Amino acid sequence: MARRPASDLATSGEVFHLIRTGEAVTRAEIGRITGLSRPAVALRVQELLAHGLVVERTDGPSTGGRPPVRLEFNASGGVVLTAALGVSRTQIAVCDLAGDEVARSDGYLDVEESPSVIVPMILDEWDALLGQAGVPASAVRGAAIGLPATVEFAAGRVQSTRVMAKWNGVAIPPLVAERFRVPLFVDNDVNMIALGEHRLVYQGDADDLLFVKVSTRIGAGVVAGGQVQRGALGAAGEIAHIPVREGLGAECRCGNVDCLEAVASGAALAARLRELGRTAIRARDVVALLREGDPEAEALVRDAGRRLGDVVSMAVNLLNPDVVVLGGDLADAFDPLVAGVREVVYQRATALASRRLRINPSSLGERSAVAGCAVLVLDHILAPDAVTHALHAAPPAAAVPARSAVRA
Fold first, then answer.
1. pLDDT tens profile 356-392
2. 3-class secondary-structure state, position 198
3. Total domain count for the chain?
């Protein structure tokens, strides 16, 4: 941040940003960068200290005068609540302000149930996890919910008539505000995972990323220029319902035939294996058979990779990403899956779009959904303008006790 003129004084949120990013770690550095007077710097720093967003550290030995004091971002200055709902698995967690898990529970929720049933269950689990971690509800600064459906992001409203139909048209923030009066962000689950992969793994290395989740169902999240692309109505990334060639008339839950999801998802492969006499219900069962050396499972996964590669090659030509990241339960069978994907993508994508293209497995693994939720909410609530508003709108936050991670 360049030195600012006195007529454009830095806000407390901007001072916090300097401390959080490490651009300025002393009051003198803040004054030099912002042009603020010493009293103005002291006032803003005091606000941040009182609200628990910043802590002071004595750095190094004293040489006779006052020991040097450094300012640090306080990741323990509050928590955010996250819930990543999936068709086969739901993860609910409490994370600190750095996005690290404080407590988490994994389980199953029937996402086809109505939000009037599911949302109270999420709220109860958040309460339980806060209790396990010894964190007061007053320390909660924001929340995020990821859903396996199309979401109108600005309104936090599901727009889906076939998937999660009972949620269609329902705005989720008012339901959460009945218990937690904090900013809530609702998004498609794959958008959140794509954001998490970009921020935590590829930031500074890849501004353009395509994340493909291959699990019970299939979805994609697009990061372009470092920002998630949701489209006009939140429907960007719906690759699951692009028809593939030679799908042999497979019926899809959307009403069409030969959609990618109908022939290459974990649910589709499990159904095919059951026809062959194997015991397989979900994507994880397909991966288990593959690891046992089942040749039919390996052949099906490799073929699914080719079908996926057919659609991904179109996306590569359209978006020209730096990296394609494969995640989800079926991505645990990465070698045969990516072999099929690479075979087709490098054959059908243009030479320029594929010249430096990387096709990698998810680096975040099973924690990708929670991490993505946390990144989404933290990007918003710790932005300079949001911090400034929060400091002026609320009293100092309750202290969060020292804690260690808890996993249910």
1. 999 999 999 888 999 999 999 999 999 999 999 999 8
2. helix
3. 3
